[in-house]
Automatic annotation (TrEMBL):
<comment type="similarity">
    <text>Belongs to the anti-sigma-factor antagonist family.</text>
</comment>
<dbReference type="GO" id="GO:0043856">
    <property type="term" value="F:anti-sigma factor antagonist activity"/>
</dbReference>
<protein>
    <recommendedName>
        <fullName>Anti-sigma F factor antagonist</fullName>
    </recommendedName>
</protein>
<dbReference type="InterPro" id="IPR003658">
    <property type="entry name" value="Anti-sigma_ant"/>
</dbReference>
<dbReference type="InterPro" id="IPR036513">
    <property type="entry name" value="STAS_dom_sf"/>
</dbReference>
<comment type="function">
    <text>In the phosphorylated form it could act as an anti-anti-sigma factor that counteracts SpoIIAB and thus releases sigma f from inhibition.</text>
</comment>
<dbReference type="InterPro" id="IPR002645">
    <property type="entry name" value="STAS_dom"/>
</dbReference>
<dbReference type="Pfam" id="PF01740">
    <property type="entry name" value="STAS"/>
</dbReference>
<dbReference type="InterPro" id="IPR014237">
    <property type="entry name" value="Anti-sigma_F_ant"/>
</dbReference>
<keyword id="KW-0749">Sporulation</keyword>
<dbReference type="GO" id="GO:0045152">
    <property type="term" value="F:antisigma factor binding"/>
</dbReference>
<keyword id="KW-0597">Phosphoprotein</keyword>
<feature type="domain" description="STAS">
    <location>
        <begin position="1"/>
        <end position="111"/>
    </location>
</feature>
<dbReference type="GO" id="GO:0030435">
    <property type="term" value="P:sporulation resulting in formation of a cellular spore"/>
</dbReference>
Length: 111
């Protein structure tokens, strides 16, 4: 499991590679929080194109970062989750607060 960061203006693109589950959630959360402190991030985009599996711990990571960025008047988006992850996101009601996009470019443009 890896996390890669790309800055697109004031938007931090968070590329997660591997699984986002209870084994990796704390590590991913800590990496994202540290990167958000270091950068001038106003918005965040979670790129799920290389995530094969996510459990409820992943929801916690997403919602926690969403709350943090919302306090700064920023926005969040999720890109390209697979069918299983999209179903989990929908069951948790995430698309009601964080929009889903097919591409990073679309997500960044919406910010």
């Amino acid at each position: 499991m890896q996390v890669k960061f790309t800055n697109r203006g004031s938007t931090l693109v968070i590329g997660i590679i591997g699984e986002l589950d209870h084994h990796s959630a704390e590590y991913i959360r800590d990496k994202i929080d540290a990167q958000m402190i270091k950068s001038t991030t106003k918005n965040i985009v979670f790129d799920f194109s290389k995530v094969g599996f996510m459990d409820s711990s992943g929801i916690g990571v997403i919602v926690g970062r969403y709350k943090n960025i919302s306090k700064l008047k920023g926005k969040a988006a999720i890109v390209n989750p697979n069918a299983q992850i999209k179903k989990i996101l929908e069951m948790a009601g995430i698309p009601k607060i964080i929009p889903l996009f097919n591409t990073v470019d679309d997500a960044v443009s919406s910010m």
